[in-house]
Amino acid sequence: MHASILYGIKYGMETIRKITVEVPESLLDDAQAETGKGVSETVREGLKRIASARAQRELLALRGKVKFSMTWQEMKEDRS
Questions:
Q1: Strands (E), the chain
Q2: pTM score, two decimals?
């Protein structure tokens, strides 16, 4: 059985994994000073940034390979 199901931990519609991780105290202190949040939220934000960086790399790999039929100005106007 999945540990998060066993513990019954849910976050929105996502299942959450409870983890234990050892990190240098100064690194955690610096990260928390940047986020202004607690340990869990700081770790979550760091993981989101890593996942986001991967998505950005994948998008950059498409640069010059995708042709749009509208200019960015037309797309912006179309949103309103």
A1: 10-11, 14-15
A2: 0.60
